[in-house]
Design a protein that fits this description.
Layout lengths: L2 H10 L9 H7 L4 H7 L5 E4 L6 H14 L3 E6 L7 H4 L7 H25 L7 H10 L4 E5 L1 E21 L7 E21 L5 E5 L3 H11 L5 E6 L9 H11 L6 E7 L7 E3 L5 E3 L7 E5 H6 L5 H26 L8 H8 L3 H11 L3 H15 L6 H16 L7 H18 L3 E5 L6 H8 L3 E10 L7 E6 L1 H4 L17 H9 L3 E2 L1 H7 L3 E2 L1 H14 L10 E2 L2
Parallel strand pairs: 1-8, 1-11, 2-7, 7-8, 12-16, 13-15
Antiparallel strand pairs: 3-6, 4-5, 9-10, 12-14, 13-14, 16-17
Helix pairs in contact: 1-11, 6-7, 7-8, 13-14, 13-15, 14-15, 16-17, 16-21, 19-20
Length: 552
Amino acid sequence: MDTRILHAALQEVEKRAERVSEDDVLDTYVNVESLTNALAARDNGIVFGRRGTGKTHALKYVAQIERAKGNRVVYIDMEQDVGSTEGRYADPALSLSERATRLVVDVLGIVHSQMLDAAFEGSVDIQIGVLDRMLDHFQEVLVARETEQEDTRTDRSSEGSNTDLGVDWTPGRMPSMRVGTGSTSEAAREAGVRTRQTGVVRHRIHFGGVTQSMRQAIEADEARRFWLLIDEWSSIPIELQPYLAEMLRRLFFGIPKVSVRIAAIPHRSEWRIAGDRGDYIGVEVGAELFPLLDLDEFVVFPARNREEQARRSLSFFRALLFRHISTALVGMGEEPPESEDDLIGSLFTQVTSFQEVIRAAEGVPRDALSIVGRAGLRAGGSKVAVAHVREAASQLYITTKATQLNGVPVARALLDRIVGDVISGRKARAFLIKQEQTPHPLIQQLVDDRILHIIKRGWSGKDNPGERYDVLQIDYGCYVHLLGTNAAPQSLLGGDDEEDFSTVIGDVVVPEDDYRAIRRAILDLPTLLVNIDADAGGAAHGISGSPTFYEL
């Protein structure tokens, strides 16, 4: 196949799923059976994954498949459909109650609007009157702030008596005696209500008649299943997310034919606000809402050994590239390649060039498509070589990932220290961190920005099985400029790659030999942060930091 045509098609490939037309969603989707089965489960669930891992594409795939079956689908993109979530719902001038009420009513309005459109099109057997009554009840939806009230009452009363005894005399008249008695009494009562705020302020959502009218409308639909798909959940201000989750639980979870899917970034999501009396607002993950799929884990390390992991990655990314380029070629009026082998052979100089793309993408499909597109521009009309892939990956890292740290100097300093200690000092590209330290905001920012990649959770060595670690790998773009030099990483964790890979991919408790190789690269995050702070405030005074990596 003509390589130049393939390069042109690469520039036509959409990197973001929200820009893919509905006609192309199925054509570009990589249909992996285990992934598809998880998406089709009846349980209400969450699809987790960082940006670029395919959450939006997965939800759009579900929408297309279920509509084709005649089922009802309501798809909501919280960034595109609801409006500016950061402006409209994060305004500090508005109270939490007002912002949460706006969010809940706006989302209900989108659900109502899509159901009403379907009813007018005649594709849903719902009485328009039911939907009209639902709209009337929207004014009853309110996120109310609860406060404690204290009754106060004051009673006052007084009683008394007096006796008046005296003689009155007027000249020219007979004297007269005056005797009198009297009593006085006074009573008053004051009653009032004083509001007293103590402890944590609680909020409650009142739905009024919306609950009943929503159930009537959904149950009147002849479709066997009703799907509510919510994309970009993590774009909602995190303090408002539990209130929207509460709405989903109370209005939709109790209807048997409804299945809810939410696409979210793991550490940018809040599902529940616990009350002080065992109550809560939101949903309980694992009891009411289930984590159905983690796309990071699915693409990066769902394997028992190195060979299986490499085979799965190769198969997935071959299909990803084949489907996207084939769709782009058809849109250009060109014939698609006959097979995946035909595409790989026509586009790359050798299979190792394509394997370098997989390595550089670190399991993120969007990054893989971006790297191939940039590499194609560097190759001109020639086939893509390893050097082109490395140049493209370096540019992607510098222009997109690294720039995200410009406004966070502490995160950049943390990354610089990690790269210096792990890559330059240990000739490795991965390290361990205690599991309770992984949720630290700075570590999570580096993970969310796809600069660090979690490739194993809950690792422990048999010398100390009670201590759990996560294995984090440094992004390819951080060290691609070192490849081919003496400073390049020689292994995953500073030892033999075969042994290290069995450490990462294999059983939770690893053999002693592998444990010795991995235990030399354990990040001491608290000490590292102290050192960064000392460097920022006391470097001019000669303050030196403590070691930031240690051995067990």
